[in-house]
Batch of 2 targets.
Target 1
Amino acid sequence: MLGWKLLFHIGNFSRLEVWSRQPKADSSLDGRGEWGSVFARIYRHEKDMATQIVRREEEVATLIAAGQALTDGVVLLDENYQIIFCNTTAEMQLGLVIHSDRGQPIINLVRQPEFVDYLQAGDFSRPLTMRFERNEDRVLSIHVLPYSDSRRLMQVKDVTQTDRLDRMRRDFVANVSHELRTPLTVLSGFLETLQEFEVDRDERSRYLALMSEQSSRMLSIVQDLLTLSSIESAPPPDTEPVDMISLLDKLRRDAEALSAGRHSIVVESDGQGDLRGSEPELVSAFTNLVANAVRYTPAGGTIRLSWKAGLQGAEFAVQDTGIGIDSKHIPRLTERFYRVDRGRSRDAGGTGLGLAIVKHSLSRHQAQLEIKSTPGVGSRFAAKFPASRVAGIQ
Amino acid sequence: MNETQHVSSQFDEDLSLLRTHVLQMGGLVETQVSAAIDAYTTGEISSVKTIVDTDRKVNELEKAIDDDCAHIIAKRQPAASDLRLVLGISKIVTDLERAGDEAKKIAKGVRRIYESGHLPSQFGVGIRHLAEAALTMVRQALDAFARLDTAQATSVIRADSDVDTEFKSIIRQLITHMMEDPRTITTAIDIISIARAIERIGDHAKNVSEQVVFIVDGRDIRHTGKEAIK
């Protein structure tokens, strides 16, 4: 009797023993007699835990997925500024690799002194805006927010574009005022002289000539500004074909007049195809390109106008053998009043708005302005039009 | 038992702080190099003074880190990988300091060129490309140190020969310029010294990477040729 009971307990115990080596909710655990209810409770507890873990894991995964979906970079830091988590945006912005960098102090990897100083100063009332050297000089705005006691959430925004727009707007206002003030200063200077002093006839007419020169400068700046704003607000250009043969002929005559025999002007065209668009806008854009080429090419140089149209689209290009442009200026050339060399371009009679007008008129015709240049060798400005803007090609 | 655990975790903290200090010094050197190159491309020589002043900070950091290394060796007598870390760091900071010196040399060369009224722009493209490659090497060497990543370190070591080749081709180009037009010699010599400084920065980055391999694997791969780098 006693022996039988002992055997019963040993049997139950060994079943529990086997199960407890690998407690699983799906392999069942059943006991006999009074062991049964004990086993059932253990088994139910195990099962509850397992479902709870699954649910928690799902919750964590959803939270991480939400973090990944953010378009801003997010980095979670512990009290020693060691990385706990970051999303893919932050990985790309800051050059982090989360699976190897967890637990690493963030200043070991984002080492730019401005950032290190900002974290160490510990004053997070204002965001830090910095040019991040390691990522092609993107401008990042970094907010550090405290959460759960001493942890920190770092939010990283890429503000390169806004920063650039801000700078352009500031530059524009400063430039307009500057460009208009220079001729005004000259005008008011001469006016004062004429009011206060007796000047002889010759001197007087010399002053007046200079004054009218300056006032026409101002007029042309204002004219260009108006052109720009009218292009901006005008309805989309029409699609009537513009006769390219006569347009090229007009451009050649303009160039020859402007050059006054100092350059040789070559036109390369097979006379194929016409452009669809607004004739005045195209003429003003192309004339601007031609005038620039004449202006910045020393005497004896060659200016080549070319027109090529095909089924893929068309290209109008002006190539010169002029002074050329350093590559660092090229991306900013079409900004209003951007000048490579302030003194020189004003002497040459530019308003600083020519290429801005060109770019605007071209983009209204869905065309791209492509600029290639080598300092000392020459430049090539090409307007590339899509096939939809080309007429008369079979 | 409790006592030793406390001491060793304090020791770990010391080591991790030491590493962070090295990386901060490295960050400063990175900025110095890129500021020097910016001065070269933009011609804004007002930043030269800042670069020269900041170099003093780099030197101070080198001294402070060296002191820390000596302290740790004397007080903790580290062994095995910890010892390698401390020894490696004391070599790494020497290289970083020298790279900082080269950045200063570049800045001063830029000032000489622009102050004499010349423009280095006709040689500009090659130099900038060279500088970008060297700067990337420094950056990746420091990343390799932060992550103790030998794969990254060996890729930096391999990149060094590209920088060397590019340096030689710039020199050849400059020689042609000088032969064609002797008036360019003064500027060209300054540009050669800048190119040389950039090439040296690449060498220092390579040395840092070699120390990373030493710290992680305990292998000394200096002066062993390409076969030793796996």
Target 2
Amino acid sequence: MVSISRRQFLKLGAAGLGASSIAVLGFSPAAALAEAREFKLTRTTETRNTCPYCSVSCGLILYGLGDKAKNAPSSIIHIEGDPDHPVSRGTLCPKGAGLLDFVHSADRLRYPEYRAPGASEWKRISWDEAFDRIARLMKDDRDKNFIGQNAEGVPVNRWLSTGFLAASASSNESGYLTHKVVRSLGILAFDNQARV
Amino acid sequence: MAQQSLDIERRSATTTPSPNMRGHVAEVAKLIDISKCIGCKACQSACMEWNDYRGNVGTCDGTYNNPFDLAANQWTVMRFTEYEPPGGNLEWLIRKDGCMHCAEPGCLKACPAPGAIVQYSNGIVDFHEEHCIGCGYCITGCPFNIPRLSDADSKVYKCTLCSDRVAVGLEPACIKSCPTGALVFGSKDDMRQHAAGRIEDLKSRGYKNAGLYDPQGVGGTHVMYVLPHADRPQIYAGLPKDPHISPLVSLWKGALKPLMSLGLGVIAFAGVIHYVGVGPNETKDDKSKVDKSSEHRDQ
């Protein structure tokens, strides 16, 4: 073991204190140059979309990570208003401005789920299962409750026991198709949540 | 990146000149028109989204203030005030609070960490947290009580005026989101003109004291307010009427600093002279020899 005398210890201590004092006074080597935050959207993919929340339907630009190369699955890293949109011109409300967390929410519905009557748990089912079940229930209900004619014998062709809720962010084209499908079945209670 | 080594007006705790040969840089400014703000907090959301911070879910204190205050992870907040002018109707004053980006920033003046706070030629005052030592002096130096120390990493954070966006020619995130156009961004001259139009409009609507808040006590700011009651900025959640850098900070970083440096130099010089002239203290009794002899004795 290296033995250090009291005198040597004091000398070392003083030298250390002096050196660190000089370093603190600014004689230490310069630190690396400050790195300001880089602009994070430089090479992102921009995709136009419409805000899903309300009937104002503000324009959005979704900024996707990556350049759509096959081996790099894209992911939305930023959302802001679309300045070319005639209604919103780039602005958004607090809900729209926070859409990124809506897209990546842990609670977001990603697949069909079914909760049986009386059950407390949701169970994941396949899309085929979901469509079959919806079609079956709709057909049964329509067969039972469809009103072809009213009391005066006038043909009315209405189905009042089922309603249909569509999304506010649908395009005109999908809105047109939704309307055609729903009305051709005779459904009257048809709405989207556009006034929320 | 252009903004870190070029176009720098000032750098904290740095005596060597910063590179600022490029004089032809327009000063930018954010203009907050209080009369148009509806307090929707889109700017708060947009700021969180762009700058990648998220606060904790808060609680309600019976007011619309949510979050209640600025934080290391909350760089802008709406401050709501219910104000009853004498003999008039209730006015709901909503002020977006955040860094004012002073032309003479108290935070930068107080900061002892080299390069932790920089002021770009366009007027933006930016914190570079990797150089921050967490002393909190900038909080003392700020006349607007803006910077906040993070509990997580002992660094101080505040609004950057989206320096990363401005550097590539975009407006800050809050400005873009604002649905009523209460927030406007551009060159400081343009913003002054815009404000003049708004003030004229407010005056024609009976707000006799409408005016621009661009306090000269801190050399002017790069975040300015259009206030319907510019004669009493205090009613807008305590906006200071005539903000100044604290005299203690000015004294400590102004008059005292060269004196202290001089004192330190004199002491160091006197030490050298003493060493040359008088020499170190010599002791006759050499302890190390005594130690060795005692070791021999033990064996």
